[in-house]
Every structure is written in structure tokens, then in C-alpha cells.
Amino acid sequence: MIIAVPAENQSLDSAICQSFGRAPFFCIYDTESESSRFIDNSAKEASGGAGIEAAQLLVDQNVDALITYRIGENAARVLKAAQTTLLKAVNLSIADNVANFLEGKLPSLDEIHSGYHHG
Amino acid sequence: MAEDITIAVLSGKGGTGKTMVSVNLAAVAGSATYIDCDVEEPNGHLFLKPAMLSQEIITIGKPEVDNRLCDGCKICSDACAFKALAVVKKKLLIFPEICHSCGLCYTLCPQGALTEVPQSLGVLYTGHHEDLQVLAAEMNIGEPSGVPLIKALMKHIKGGLTIIDGPPGSGCLVHETIEHADFCLLVAEPTRFGEQNLALVHRLVTLMGKPAAVLLNKTTGDPNPSEAYAKANGLPIIASLPWDDELARVTSRGALITEESGAYRQYFSTLLATILKEAQRA
Ligand code: SF4
Ligand code: SF4
After folding, report:
1. What value of ipTM does the predicted structure carry?
2. Is residue B113 a contact partner of residue B70, using CB atoms and an 8 Å limit?
């Protein structure tokens, strides 16, 4: 199973980024090999649908689950179409969140905020 | 007023008296056109109370996909600058409220799977107040950009004198409005905040190479940061409009001061003549 987590820094000790679409990196964690890697979030400076682009990036990485504090409705629509499981992050490091996830302790992410508006 | 001339009244953030100035200028302009470009919250009609309103729905093209033709190649979603498209499991997802209708995706799709379907963007209203033609448009909530509505409004400029009540701010709507103007009248309040707004809009009109002048609104005897800005930055001061309780009262009940006070009618007529002289000189 492949898990994605928005990351402030390229380290498992890093905090989870508060934002999804604008996170600097994503941690891609493979539960089978217990290995992790970090990818740049190409959407972080996007104008327009940053959440959509970030979600597309994760879908292209064949991610099965996303652990995040929040997500916008557009990004959620992309990830749900890909049947990605959305989980609510707890205020701990990436590694601790992954551990919590593996123990089935993370609640599913239900509140989805509406997209932002720009002119 | 034989010449074709378009004057944009601008102010940065709202609340400076921009609409009050625009509608009163328009009211003394005789046979002219007034265009309210605040497509998010048009309010000029509250003052001009135009008769015989006609409405026209303005549409804009957004993509629709034929799933039988789309093979999920991602060419369109990779190319969309606004990220309004995504491909999941070989299926295209479209986000119309992010789409800016640039038209690129239709031309790129190798399968011919995308078609442009008109969707309502907002409504354009036309009416008249005596000899004045009054135009306004209101954008549907949630649209990403009102620029196409402003373009639709501008198509109605029919020559002669046109007074545009500009949108607030200094973003792309204001940019689109200034494009069509021959002369910009900036309305500024005598506060630090007013000065900052004035500086933003002044920079924009200067960048776009449009002649401009400032009307100092709500002046008192006190030091005026907007006046200081204009003097320091070579922005001509076309007139001052002193703070006046009566003006504020009349405006707040949605009336035109030029229709209630001879002195103000004279003031705005003179202001309009001065603007036209400045604009022709520029
Ligand atoms: S029309 Fe332009 S903005 Fe809209 S989806 Fe197509 S490429 Fe993107
Ligand atoms: S370019 Fe055409 S075929 Fe390719 S994903 Fe887009 S709509 Fe589908």
C-alpha cells in the first residue's frame, strides 16, 4: 500500500504541512517495503487549481491513501475518483502519523472545505 | 461632444466615492453612455434607476468531454494552465469553476473528444436614464473571472462620451477596464489607506500608458496623504470635493446630488468639462 503525506521538509521527522495543495513536498511511503521517498509538489506555486494539480500528482504515483489535515473539494473529487482513502492527520511527525495509520488509529477525513475564489 | 472618448473612474478598494462620482458625472453628461464595470456587485443602477431594462444572458464556453472518444492521454490536463482538468483512471475530470475558457484544450485533444459548450456567466442589463444609456452586468457567483463580462460590456460602447464606473481593486478586472479607457479619473480619500489605494491604481494606469488625474474626495482642511502622493508623483490633481454632510446624506439614500442641488450640478458639469479638456490634451 502506498501512502502520501504533505510534508514541510524532506524527512520522516518533519511536520505534516497544514496545506495540501501548497505543501512543498509529498512523502510517498510504501508500507510493503517500509521505504519512503519525497517528491516536489509541482503545484505549490500554481495559479488556479493547485489542489487539483497536487491531487493529479498523487494519483499518478498510484497512491492508495492520503493523510492530511485538510483538503479542498476539487482535490477531493480527483482523489475520490481514484478511490484514494482520505485520512485526518494528527499533530505529530510524518513517521508517527504513518505508524498511527498502520495501527488503524487515524479517523477518515470528512470535512472538505470549498475551493477558494480568485478574480 | 462630437468626439469619441471613454473615461474610466477608478479608486482601488471600494468606499472612496467612486460610484458617487461616476453616476453624477454621467447624470450631467447628457447623451452619453454609463457602464458599471463592478460585475461582482453592480450598484450604479441604484442611483441612475434606469428605465426599460433589457437583459441578455452572457455565456462563455467551457469544455465537455465525450467519454467514448477520450482515451485518457492527459494531453489536455497537462497543458491547461489553470489546472481545471485532471485524468483519473483514464477518465477526464473537468472543473468548470476553475476553467478560464482559454480554448486550448479543444485544439489539443487528438481524439476530438472535447467540445465547447456555452454556459451562463452572468447577465448584462441595458436601460436608460433620460438621454443617458446605462449598462451593467452581474456575474454568477463562483465564476473564476469576470473579464469576459467586461469585454461584453465594452462591446456596447457606441461612440460619443462613455463613462465607466471601474471595478474595485487593481486586479485583472481593473486591467481589462483600463484597456478600453482613453483617460482615467482616480478618486482618492484623504487617508493613509486612500493614499495606498491611489498609489496602486496610479502605478497600474502608468504601466498601461494611460493619461490620468486624481479627484481628491472628502477633503477637509487637514493634511491629505493622497494629495501629498499626487504632488510627489506627478499625478495631476483635477479637482477637490470637500467633505459635505448633505452630499453624504443624499448619496446614502441612493439619490443623485446633481438632481437635487444646482451647485453640485454646476460642480460636476465643470468637472466633466475639465476632464474632457485634459483627455483631449493627453
Ligand atoms: S478551456 Fe483552457 S482553462 Fe478551460 S479547461 Fe480548457 S485549457 Fe483549461
Ligand atoms: S486530450 Fe482528449 S483524449 Fe486526451 S485526455 Fe484530454 S480529452 Fe481525453
Report:
1. 0.82
2. yes
